[in-house]
């Protein structure tokens, strides 16, 4: 899913046709469609829960998810799929959003679970996870980035619209990596609960950030960042 030329074995080029065949094979490997990635942060949840299963959405969190679902539906786009973190708060957010997008398939993945992607720079005093977390979570979240954030497959003919429901740390890291910014700066961004971040990946590999943490569709009294 990188530069088309990197997908061709140049040693196998036809001696008779030479450059012409390379050009033909390049066309076969080039992406034609644009991917639209909508990264949704889960809604507000119960912070007192010790285990993940206890960290369910609050009543306000459920309202936020309804508003996010309504906003996505109002865009009038044909969404291809919703991929969501397997954590409870992300799963519940997905279930509520999906009611507004009937027929869109849902896929759960552990790759998008919350974690510590990389040691932030500058450091912060209020959040200091164990160093081992950066190695365990960081490798997984980087794998999520490589697995989900790439140009369209060469066989894809039409533009696609995909929703990813996950967590603030994951989204912030993915945005930095996708825009080729230093990933250590991920903690400088802040995302509201139920917010929408929109990335566009062009066929040539260029990435644009359309919106970051948008909650303009929510009344002010419904906006939280917990």
Blueprint of the fold:
Blueprint: H1 19-29, E1 35-41, H2 59-74, E2 81-85, H3 88-99, E3 105-109, H4 131-148, E4 160-166, H5 168-178, E5 196-201, E6 207-214
Parallel strand pairs: 1-4, 2-3, 2-4
Antiparallel strand pairs: 1-5, 5-6
Helix pairs in contact: 2-3
Structure described in brief:
The protein has five helices and six strands, in the order αβαβαβαβαββ.
Give structural notes.
- This protein is α/β, with parallel strands linked by helices.
- It has two domains: 1-30, no CATH class; 33-222, 3-Layer(aba) Sandwich (Rossmann fold).
- It contains five helices and six strands.
- It has helices at 19-29, 59-74, 88-99, 131-148, 168-178, and strands at 35-41, 81-85, 105-109, 160-166, 196-201, 207-214.
- Helix 2 packs across helix 3.
- The longest helix has 18 residues, at 131-148.
- The protein is globular.
- It starts with 18 loop residues before the first helix and ends in a 12-residue tail after the last strand.
**Text of the CATH class of the largest domain:** Alpha Beta
Order of helices and strands: HEHEHEHEHEE
Tell me the radius of gyration: 20 Å
| Helix-and-strand structural type | alpha/beta
Q: What is the domain total for the residues?
A: 2
What's the rounded overall pLDDT mean?
A: 92
Q: Tally the helices.
A: 5
Describe the sheet with the most strands. 6 strands, mixed
Low-confidence segments: none
> What's the total number of strands?
6
Main location: mitochondrion
GO biological process, one term: positive regulation of mitochondrial fission
Pfam families: His_Phos_1
Family: Belongs to the phosphoglycerate mutase family. BPG-dependent PGAM subfamily.
């Amino acid at each position: 899913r990188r530069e088309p030329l990197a997908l061709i074995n140049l040693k196998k080029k036809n001696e008779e046709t030479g450059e012409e065949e390379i050009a033909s094979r390049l066309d076969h490997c080039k992406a034609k469609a644009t991917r639209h990635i909508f990264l949704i942060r889960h809604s507000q949840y119960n912070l007192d829960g010790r285990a993940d299963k206890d960290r369910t959405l609050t009543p306000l969190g459920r309202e936020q998810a309804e508003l996010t679902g309504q906003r996505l539906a109002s865009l009038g786009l044909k969404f291809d799929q919703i991929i969501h973190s397997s954590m409870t708060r992300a799963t519940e957010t997905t279930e509520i959003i999906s009611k507004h997008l009937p027929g869109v398939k849902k896929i759960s993945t552990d790759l998008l679970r919350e974690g510590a992607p990389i040691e932030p720079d500058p450091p912060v005093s209020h959040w200091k996870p164990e160093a081992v977390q950066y190695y365990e979570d960081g490798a997984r979240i980087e794998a999520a980035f490589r697995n989900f954030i790439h140009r369209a497959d060469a066989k894809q003919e039409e533009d696609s619209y995909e929703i990813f429901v996950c967590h603030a740390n994951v989204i912030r890291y993915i945005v930095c990596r996708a825009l080729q910014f230093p990933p250590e700066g991920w903690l400088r961004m802040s995302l509201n609960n139920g917010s929408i971040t929109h990335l566009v990946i062009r066929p040539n590999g260029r990435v644009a950030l359309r919106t970051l943490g948008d909650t303009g569709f929510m009344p002010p009294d419904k906006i939280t960042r917990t």
